Amino acid sequence: MEKPYRRRDLLGIRELSEAEIRGILDTAENFREINTREIKKVPTLRGKTVINLFFENSTRTRTSFELAAKRLSADAVNISVSSSSVSKGETLVDTALNLDAMDPDCIVVRHGSAGVPHQLAKVSRAAVVNAGDGSNEHPTQALLDAMTIREHKKKISGLEVAIVGDILHSRVARSNIHLLTKLGAKVRVAGPGTLVPRDFEFFIDAENKKSSESESADMRASVDAGRDSALQVCDHVEDAIDGADVVMILRIQRERQDSAYFPTLREYAVHYGLTNERLDLAKKDAIVLHPGPMNRGIEIASDVADSSRSLILDQVKYGVAVRMAVLYLATGGSTN
Ligand code: CP
Fold first, then answer.
1. 52, 55, 59: residue to mutate for ligand 1 pocket, most atoms within 8 A of CB
2. pLDDT tens, 241-265?
3. For residue 202, what are the domain limits?
4. Single pTM value for the model
């Protein structure tokens, strides 16, 4: 029998087993009901302290981690870079050591550079939760996406999921590719050629670690090897969306693009944006996800974003339950 989730830190989906992912999702299901009560508060984390350390802007992630902590009765402290001594030149490690000296139980960190949560976890006695590190991972986003899919499709295994847009810079895409393929979905990615990597080293490396020698040799060939492979790179957005159960649209991440990856936003909207015509290629009961913030009229048409097939606000709602589960598990709770 697979061990229950007993990790201290949540740094990425890549290192989690299928059983651990299911354990977090099941724990989130249990917490979900609390968010529907008139008094949305339970004493589960009374006496615990959670620090939200955000070096990048956030609406959804920071607010939902704060709400999650407060609904579990933990004390939550928010620190943003503009109000911290990082702006006076303090190093990241010194900031972490100083926060750690105040004995928090959990530090939730978002940073523009990949690997920062991993660095903090090495020096911190508190549990570290990755709230998004550069273009690397956004594990709680993938978990809340999975919770949304599970709620509406009752399963993840066997589903066909199209991820469309700026794959290259997207930590959401990386975490979702790991999670969805571990849980048995088939993922198809598409976007401008300049924004879709062809080699997917991060995925191949992770798969190779858990495969036997002979399976490892086949992994590179299996990416892009057609509809039966766990991960397929499509040349056209229409090919990715065709027959999909889930269409996940990614934001154009202009803040991470150091050069022009496509001529104009208008051309991006015409060639890659999700319109009702493109969505009609998906299964009739296909659902639409977007991690937010949305660029309406660019990667997604407003009438699609506001349609009954769009579960964008459900994603935000489930984000609170997922973050309650993650804080609970990071501070000593068990999926048992
Ligand atoms: N999806 C997401 O991470 O949104 P925020 O940047 O608002 O946290």
1. 59
2. 999 999 999 998 776 665 678 888 8
3. 139-315
4. 0.93
